[in-house]
Design brief:
single chain; alpha/beta; Rossmann fold; 7-stranded mixed beta sheet; 36% helix; disordered C terminus
């Protein structure tokens, strides 16, 4: 199966997918892309704007995972911004990044494969209904089922705890990016596997002649 992994980060969602698939990862940050490639050498890693890459290449894949940037949607950022207004008289308001909804609409209406778009639970009512799994929302054109995890990753955890929980050791990498932030941005790998399995089950039931690909 040909998989497109957009805004891949270091590969939290991809960690348990194995090497049976043809995976292309798109990541804009070179340092983060380097870490991804170190962990998943069989994947094709492209340093590019994921939003633009999707528009030009969506038709070439069977399954697409997208995790667009979340800060402008974040309840935490919204709360901090409102608090700043009270304490400093300053309000650093940002427009909500509509790339999230642009990608959902593109995939829902033009893409013939299976897709999932992941993001935080926003501070506003989502403009397009989504399914809540864990701490995030998921938009998809297949049933992603239900998922629960005992993992509880909280901001402020030590690097050793974050690395153990996320399954990535970043100690050997000399990078400018904050390593704890990179780990906090990782999707739960077990959740990533759960969603891929749901997508594969749907594809296999739809076209049983293709099951040998998986």
């Amino acid at each position: 199966m040909k998989i497109l992994n957009l805004y891949s980060g270091i590969g939290g969602n991809r960690k348990l997918w194995g090497d049976a698939h043809e995976i292309t990862a798109i990541e804009f940050n070179e340092e983060i892309a380097m870490i991804y490639k170190d962990y998943f050498p069989n994947d094709e890693v492209i340093i590019a704007d994921a939003h633009e890459f999707l528009l030009k290449n969506y038709m070439n894949y069977d399954f697409i995972w997208s995790s667009p940037p979340c800060p402008t949607h974040s309840r935490m950022r919204y709360t901090c911004t409102k608090q700043e207004q009270k304490t400093r008289g300053k309000l650093d308001v940002k427009y909500v990044d509509m790339k999230l909804y642009q990608e959902i609409l593109l995939l829902e209406n033009y893409f013939e494969g299976k897709y999932v778009v992941e993001n935080v639970i926003p501070y506003y009512e989502p403009l397009i209904p989504a399914k809540k799994l864990g701490r995030h929302l998921f938009w998809s054109n297949f049933n992603v089922g239900s998922y629960s995890s005992e993992k509880n990753v909280l901001r402020g955890n030590s690097m050793s705890v974050l690395q153990e929980q996320r399954g990535f050791d970043l100690s050997k990498f000399k990078i400018k990016q904050r390593k704890d932030t990179i780990l906090l941005n990782c999707v739960d790998s077990e959740l990533g596997l759960h969603i891929l399995n749901c997508a594969m089950n749907v594809i296999q039931k739809k076209d049983t002649t293709q099951t040998s690909l998986f």
